[in-house]
Amino acid sequence: MDVQNILKTLGTGHRGRVKLTRKYHQALEASISKNYPGNGIISCMSHNTDGLYRLRSLEHRAVGGCGIYVSDKPGHHNFNLLKKLVLPNGSILRAKLPGRPTRDCLFSDPTRDKYDSLLKIWNLNDYNGVVGVFNCQGAGCYLKILSICIELLTRIGVGMPLYFHIVVETLSSKKFICASIGLINMFNSGGAIKELKDQHESEKDECVRLKVHGCGMFGSYASIRPKRIRADANDVEFKYEERSGFITFTLTEPVEGSYHWDIIAIF
């Protein structure tokens, strides 16, 4: 899909640019759904404002809520980067909305104001959110992206490109507070969490139940140490940092079948 920016030129002066863009993309996406069921089409020349705010099924990378397309030269892939974007089975952890700039970026130029601002793009998952922070000053390139919990914001100096995971929903009881972060080695960590609820396991115990998509290192916060953690009814080894309340355990890559896990943390 090329030369989409011509829509702005065609609509100039006719008071129909917005409607023209909307109709164009509605027809384009309908055609893609019909003729390319796997949505295997690359959208280029579509980075004008109208296009970015209109597209839902087609955008870019980790906070866009969209498919991911790689155009690296064969043999020159950065697999360490790609593994943070794509799960081993080829699926990705998609956010729910089109990625959008934060309010403080709307009336600033994060490419030319001499390091006074950074480009920040936000999105939401089912139970949390994600913010991508990019140093676009000058050439608009970035060299390193870190996946990090939002609680560490105050410890990080500005100017470094980051992905921040935002914990939106927490579970609490008289005994503990728990907030799940997700697959911490993925850029959109929280996109792995598909269901979250708490309940009584017995008269003495309470538990947090999650449905998780994907594999790798899973991270969560809890105000007290869990007694047990089970994945698909099997006990898993976990680490708990007393000082920070950070819990980590590994969801292994399945030999075959589903990448979905039923997780129970018993307190």
From TrEMBL:
Keyword terms, alphabetized: Carbohydrate metabolism
Cited InterPro entries: Glycosyl_hydrolases_36
Pfam families, per database record: Raffinose_syn (PF05691)
Entry-linked PANTHER family: GALACTINOL--SUCROSE GALACTOSYLTRANSFERASE 1-RELATED (PTHR31268:SF29), PTHR31268
Name by which UniProt lists this protein: Uncharacterized protein
Organism: Heracleum sosnowskyi
Organism phylogeny: Eukaryota, Viridiplantae, Streptophyta, Embryophyta, Tracheophyta
